[in-house]
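We treat protein structure as text, and this decision shapes the records that our systems exchange. The tokens are whole numbers drawn from a learned vocabulary of local backbone shapes. One such record is reproduced below, unchanged from the form in which we store it:
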Amino acid sequence: MPLQLDIVTPEKKVFSDMVDNVYLPGADGEMGILPQHAGLVTALQPGEMRYLHHGQVVTLAIGSGFAEVTQQKVTVLTDMALGEGEIDESTTEDAIQRAQEKLASPEHSLDAEEVAYLQGIIAQSSAALHLKRKFKR
């Protein structure tokens, strides 16, 4: 019995179809979801998401967000969902470097919101870069 999986970002619905399983980067580590899973709502952290679709494992780099799980459905709401082919390694490395430089720069006095935003960019970009390099080998 498959699961309905919906992956939604602010820009678009990235995926909507039946899958055999889903693995998500939860706040407390990776969690696996199979059909008939107990219902839950959980926070997601930037990292690697995988699911089995028509016998093939699909891997995405996702940002932070939330997942709602029922016995028949998983809904992932995230601010980023990218496949390996959508990730440009040099652009992603540049984004990490710019955010790190701004965080470390003494002439920028950043408030807590700006620091959290820059840390979020670093976490998302690092997740994307990890996925890109994983498939590059």
